[in-house]
Every structure is written in C-alpha cells, then in structure tokens.
From TrEMBL:
Sections of the chain in a coiled coil: none
Family annotation (Pfam families): Methyltransf_11
The species this protein was found in: Deinococcus ruber
The protein's name: Methyltransferase type 11 domain-containing protein
InterPro entries: Methyltransf_11, SAM-dependent_MTases_sf
PANTHER family tied to this protein: METHYLTRANSFERASE (PTHR43591)
GO MF assignments: S-adenosylmethionine-dependent methyltransferase activity
Gene3D superfamilies the UniProt entry points to: Vaccinia Virus protein VP39
Amino acid sequence: MAAQLSAGRGASVRGLDASPNLLAIAQERVPSAAFLLGELEALPYADHTFDLVTGFNSFQYAGNPGIALSEAKRVAKPGGQVLIVTWGTPEGMEAASLIRVLGPLMPPPPPGAPGPFALSDEPALRAFAIGAGLEPLEVFDVPSPWHYADLSTALRGLLSSGVAARAAAHSGEDAVNAAHSRVLEPYRQPDGSYTIGASYRCLTARA
C-alpha cells in the first residue's frame, strides 16, 4: 500500500523483502517500482540514496535488528526520514494470537533474538532508533483491522507474510494453515468472513 501511494504521488519507489511471494504481489501492484529479494542487514543501495526509508514490520524480525536499522540510516539522505512500523502493543490486540501461534512452527531463533513485540514498547522503540544514530521525531499508533472474505482468503493472506513463509518452510504449509485456522475461528462472522483487530506502532526519525 505504501509503495502504491508513493508511486501515485510521483515518487521513485524501490523495495526489498525476503519473501518472493510478497515481492511478486508488490511488483504486480506497482509495476513502475523496482523490487529486490534480499536482507535488511545488507541493503543493495548506495549511501545517501533516499529521501524516505520505510520498514514495515521488518526490523524486529531481522537477524541483527541494529545492523538492519543502521543500513536504513546509511541509505537515507542526510536529513531524510526513516519510518519504522512495528506491531502495536500485544495486550488486547486480537492479531497478536495469530503472530504468537507461529512461534512453535519457526526454526529456533538465534541467541538474543528480540521477538515480534520487542519494539512495541515506546521507550524501547525510541532507544532502538537512537542506537542507530537516528533522531526520533514522533511515535504514533495506527489501528488497522484485518478483513478477509472467507477462510481460504484469510489463510492465503496470512501465509504470504515473510514470517509465515519461514514457518511453512520449517514446519510445512499444512501446519501453518492448521494453526491459523484454530486461532481464526473465534473471529468468524455470520457471513463466513473474518475480522481481526490489529494495530501498528510507528516511529518517524531524522537521519
């Protein structure tokens, strides 16, 4: 969505993800953009390239989040902005159950891995930005419920995330779909659709 909005406003859009499925969707929706398969810790861009660098639910999943954010700062122009989007606080967020259920299906995390909600705490998020040499500007929350027309659509959408793809590679798609199906059941609407409450915590920072 961010790539679509930016391209629609005339921006030159570049993107990177570790999930081929997500990249294919992004490229289909924004044909004018250039998307690459890669890792956050080694961005394939020159120093001081971008006016704005965004990371959507990405830094907390990086093998080394600090290096990943330092890379984001490196490719941002001096005085440019970096936007970090992470999960909102898990307490009371319905989508948190869909995130947590993947834990047992994932490969063992590296020692000291932060976990999906490590940056949801505002002081931790600000400290994370400062540690990479960024100047935090604003922290705000964005509610964004998930809506799916039916179970098949929900499972397909959830499986397209990079985290779910890693869980599927480790434990199999059937296991991931079964886990998601169990968690989704309480959110089934009378018409067979699903609505799950979700929110995101965002930090803007100056490079």
